Amino acid sequence: MLLTLELVFIGIAVLFLISIIANKFSERLGVPALLIFLIVGMLAGSEGPGGIPFDDPTLAQLIGIIALAYILFSGGLDTRWEEIQPILWQGIALSTIGVVLTAVLLGAFAVLVLGFSPLTGLLLGAVVSSTDAAAVFSILRTARARLKGNLRPLLEFESGSNDPMAVLLTTGIIGLILTPGSSIFSLVPTFAQQMAVGGLMGYGLGMFTVWFINRIKLETEGLYPVLTLAMVLLVYGLTTTIGGNGFIAVYLAGLIIGNSVIVHKKSLIRFYDGIAWLMQIVMFLALGLLVFPSQLASAFVPGLLAALFLIFIARPIAVLLTLLPWKMPMNEKALVSWVGLRGAVPIILATYPLVAGVPDAAVIFNIVFFIVIFSALVHGTSIPSVARWLGLAGPLEETGQLSREFDVNPDTPSELLELVIPPDASAVGKQVVDLGLPTGTLIILMQKGDERFVPVGSTVIGAKDTLLLLTTDEMTESVRARLLTPKEEKETPQSTALTVQDCPEGTAGPLTVEEPPEEMTESLYEQESPEDNTESDPSSPR
């Protein structure tokens, strides 16, 4: 059959549709999306039913780099700075010292057990030394894997910032292999330069992007996402050109933009959520197409041994040694050790030796691919269970749809928070006036079943009710604790506060009343929802 452009379009569309539908079932089965996308790519490849010929590691590497840049930017855009601050130094330590320790330990194993030469074994360790941002973000941001405390921000920050060290180690060791006589200590100044330049460029260009978005005043809202798409490529390209690490630059730029006041911020975050998924599908499909399943058989034994050593010995030792200066409970360190997901980044890095023509590059690629598959099966399916076993599983939250069409003025500190009340929450059975919400917080919309309305003071909170609250970033955790704390846990008394808002004029100052009479609080809610419109308006308050 003659391959026409139309048939190419049909093939691409079918691959995307299969990946999306398969991902829906993977969530129900608890299987990571990356595994589904890789399998679809392998089936579509030259040795699968799809029969698509693809054997171009250079092109796969290019696709992977572009996709990873947008995934990291999206991850930074959706990360709160106040979540990062408490774990900043732990995350930096894991993304640098932890990566080096993992690479050295696995490299030693590859030399002593698998029979690799020292530099080749160290290259294998470097390639799989970093956790994967795409895999970690997609798994930890689902309700199944919600974690307590600062564990999710720590793991996400580590995965988003440890790629530069892995890239540096991989490229540096490749240079040592191809240039006999060079010293491994020459990597130290190169790493310092890449991290420093990458950090400065990410911060500077992130601040410039915030200023530019707020000043350009485009006529069409749809052009703002296009503008940021160009900025991501610009940040990565400029940083890499002057000797910095582009990955850390785009992640920091996203972190700065996401924590700044910009116009159409909510629509940008929604846009990049879709872009991140698109990039994951494209990246994993391309990497899956690059794999020849018939060659994986020879990598089964060394790949299995390396994966077991990495998961149960190298990663735990690296984490425990790296986190020694901080007093973390042992169960938290155990969970950090377990969430060592390997994904697209190791496979992308495994293409570097292929492109450079390093001896045994094909062997390394197949072993790395097997490690990624094994890690996805073991880690991706077990994180929720391990978190519950260690007592670190947070309360489940279901993401609703009430806030999708709402936005707040970027010039105010207001923030929309949407919560689904768990059946065991202490808020169940209470009236709105009895919740004791923090100062400056209001429930602006509520959903019971299929009915949506504005609650009043006497409205009773039920299990599985969805609440849309107007609050601020500083109060978010306090609101979550007040509404989602299980009944058996003792609640800390808080002062009750009410906020009166005048939408056309902006946000009014908070009105705080210490231990207000119930009748007074309820009457204020009722003043905001006059009863004379109750019968005529189906969305009127109760």
From TrEMBL:
The record, for Gene3D superfamilies, names: 1.20.1530.20, Regulator of K+ conductance, C-terminal domain
Instruction: Indicate the segments forming the RCK C-terminal domain, all copies.
Output: 404-485
Keyword annotations for this protein, in alphabetical order, are: Antiport, Cell membrane, Ion transport, Membrane, Transmembrane, Transmembrane helix, Transport
| Predominant cellular place of this UniProt entry's protein | membrane
Which residue spans traverse the membrane?
6-22, 29-46, 58-75, 87-116, 122-143, 164-185, 191-213, 222-239, 245-263, 275-293, 299-323, 335-355, 361-378
Q: Disordered: where is this region?
A: 485-542
**Topology in the lipid bilayer:** Multi-pass membrane protein
Q: Where does the record place it?
A: Cell membrane
- Name the InterPro entries for this protein: Cation/H_exchanger_TM, Na+/solute_symporter_sf, RCK_C, RCK_C_sf
Top-rank taxon, per record: Archaea
Q: Which Pfam families did the record assign?
A: Na_H_Exchanger (PF00999), TrkA_C (PF02080)
Q: Name the PANTHER family for this protein.
A: K(+)_H(+) ANTIPORTER NHAP2 (PTHR32507:SF7), NA(+)/H(+) ANTIPORTER 1 (PTHR32507)
Output this protein's name. Potassium/proton antiporter
